[in-house]
Amino acid sequence: MEKLFIDRAPQPIAPFSHACRVGDLVFITGQMPTVPETNEMLLGTFTEQTHRVMQNLAIVLEEVGSSFEHVVQSRVFITNMGHFDEVNGVYASYFPQPLPTRTCIGVTGLAGGADVEVDMIAWIPPSEDSSA
């Protein structure tokens, strides 16, 4: 097992790693709408927050050698299910078809006042430069 800290991703505000790799799977900590350059929470609309969350996940996926194409499962946490369709539209735009498995959970609150958080499990395919 390898615990991973990603320098380009938003820095944790609590005691956790960005991801944990076990074999060819990576378990990615829930990402918030935090701007990596400033480490400040983007508290805009649900659309803006969902884009930032997905961009943060893209940073981690890229850093570990994976992508949205290889996501196996994700969990979406939102503070207001009235924005379910809005969040879904943004979320789905980051994935090729078919989509990965997913759970969406309505919560009463998230850290830092955020309205959207997403965590993921992804497959890390063999790199193209590795010998067979």
From TrEMBL:
GO molecular function, one term: deaminase activity
The protein's name in its UniProt record: 2-iminobutanoate/2-iminopropanoate deaminase
InterPro entries noted in UniProt: RidA, RutC-like_sf, YjgF/YER057c/UK114
CDD domains: YjgF_YER057c_UK114_family (cd00448)
GO cellular component: cytosol
Domain of life: Bacteria
Stated family: Belongs to the RutC family.
Pfam families per UniProt: Ribonuc_L-PSP
PANTHER family: 2-IMINOBUTANOATE/2-IMINOPROPANOATE DEAMINASE RIDA, 2-IMINOBUTANOATE_2-IMINOPROPANOATE DEAMINASE
